[in-house]
C-alpha cells in the first residue's frame, strides 16, 4: 500500500485504485470530479479524496470551491503580510489562495477542511456551510470556546441545535492538533516581521543616501 506524507495535509494519504463503476467523487483540494479508472489518494481520518496530481503537488488554480463563488489562485507568499485568512481569521502570509475579484485570502490547509465533521464537543454532525443566517444583534460568539467570533469568517454549524463554532476550535477537535505546524507558523510570522523591519530600514537608508548624494552634488558645483 502506497502511503503519502503530504506536508500541507495533517494526516497520511493512502493510495487507492478507483474503479469505473464507482460514483464520481469530489477532490478535496481542487473540488473537481474524480471519476473513471484512476489512482487516487484518500484520507481515512477526514474521509476525503484527492487527485493524484493534487495530492503530490499544489494546483495553481482552483476553479470551483463549495465555500467561494470565484476562482482562486495559489501564491507561495502574500505581498500584503497583514492579510487575514477568510476561514480561520489568522494572518495569511504564506501558502495561500487568493481571489482577485473579492480580494479574499484563504490558507491552503483551510481549503482542505472537510465539509462535515464529528466532534467530541457536540453530539450531532457539524457542517461547513457557505453561509449561516444569523441575527443582527452584533454580538457573535463561538459556542465551543465562548469567545467572540467574526461573522464574516467561516464557521462550523449544527442546523438542528443552532450551534456555531470557530473553524479553528472545531478543526483542532475534529482533525487533530498539529503542534509542529503551529510552531512553524509562529516562526514564519517572526521572520516575516524581521523582513518587514529590514525593508523599512533599507528604505530609510536609501532615502538618506539619495539626500547625501544630492548634497554632495550641490557642494561640488559651488
In short:
The chain is built from four helices and 14 strands. It has 222 residues and is of the alpha+beta class. The longest helix has 42 residues.
Protein model, in words:
The chain is α+β, with helices and mostly antiparallel strands and 222 residues long. Helices cover 27% and strands 27% of the residues. A hairpin with a 4-residue loop joins strand 13 (155-158) and strand 14 (163-166).
Strand-helix topology:
Layout (H helix, E strand, L loop, with lengths): L2 E3 L6 E7 L6 E2 L6 E2 L3 E6 L4 E4 H5 L4 E2 L9 E6 L16 E6 L4 E4 H4 L4 E4 L2 E6 L27 E4 L4 E4 H8 L4 H42 L2
Antiparallel strand pairs: 1-2, 2-5, 3-4, 5-6, 7-8, 8-9, 9-10, 11-12, 13-14
User: What's the pLDDT, averaged over the residues?
Assistant: 77
Low-confidence stretches: 171-177
**Tally the helices: what do you get?**
4
Specify the overall morphology.
Answer: extended
Characteristics:
222 residues, alpha+beta, four-stranded antiparallel beta sheet, 4 helices
